[in-house]
Amino acid sequence: MAIVDISNRISNLDSDETDTLSDSIRRHLADEILAGRFPVNHRLDEQELAAKFEVSRTPVREAIRQLASAGLVDIRPRRGAVVVSVDPDKIGQAFEAAADLEALSAGWAAMRATLVEMTELIDLHEMCAGAITGATPDEFAAANREFHDKIADLARNESLKSATRLVRVQTAPFQRAQFQSAQERERSQKDHGEILAAICNQDRQAAERAMKNHILRASLAALRHENNKKNKTDETIIPESKRRK
Questions:
Q1: Does 12 score more than 70 pLDDT?
Q2: Residue 162 neighbours by CB under 8 Å, 6+ apart
Q3: Distances (CA, A) of 137 to 131, 146, 181
């Protein structure tokens, strides 16, 4: 089965200065999987993908490993990476872990951020606001990522930051998918405003609470999005004659 024409060059992938090639490739492939352009049981061929993105196989292999961590593919003996059905339980577990880790980051950020750093966080928040309607969903997702990354930096705990990034690899594809909705982008921005206010007020408990609520709300939106998508798929595969009965 030929792969979908996702991109001709790695330069076409959405990325920011903190990204690695594997991060960009992973996000792009995750979007393709969640959009249904790579169906269940489709095999991701490293060599074909490397040629498509015009990169070596190393970042492709790492991107596929991250997709496996997110539960989007299964790496099987003699078959390689195969797209699998999304497991709602695994999505929920990943978001639960992310909620606690990111809440800790927000709490420490409230205690440790300087006034200059708070101003920088405000600037990122305003950049997210401009991306709600004045940019693509991918651009909003990138701005959202910068906002969360900045809070992780302000926490000044490298162990916590590393753990958070590992879990975010599992949750990010589902958050990006829901950002296709302008309503979800607006709700996410509202949550960010509450987190920002708590950090600027140096209110650790409020920052932790606001961030945890934000991530858990995002998990419910992600699960609803996946469930709605599954229901639509089920409707399309039921024969018309059976639906009439």
A1: no
A2: none
A3: 8, 14, 8
Domains and CATH numbers, the chain: 14-83 (1.10.10.10), 88-232 (1.20.120.530)
Q: How many CB atoms lie within 10 A of CB 147?
A: 19
Report the side by side order of strands in the sheet with 80-83: 43-44, 80-83, 73-76
What is the overall mean pLDDT for the chain? 87
Residues 6+ apart with CB under 8 A from 156: 108, 112
Torsion of CA 143, 147, 148, 154, to 10 degrees: 150
Tell me if 153 sits within 8 A of 198, measured CB to CB: no
Estimate the crossing angle of helix 137-155 against helix 182-200, to 10 degrees: 20
Task: Give the tens place of pLDDT for each residue, 173-198.
Answer: 888 887 888 889 999 999 999 999 99
Mean pLDDT (whole number) for 99-112 = 98
Please give the helix or strand (H or E) that residue 75 lies within, else none.
strand 73-76
Helix (H, G, I), strand (E, B) or coil at 83: strand
Enter the tokens of residue 193. Answer: 């405003």
pLDDT tens per residue, range 30-65: 989 988 899 999 999 999 999 999 999 999 999 999
Paired with 74 in beta bridges are 82
Q: Which one-letter DSSP state was computed for residue 79?
A: T
Pairing type for strands 43-44 and 80-83 reads antiparallel
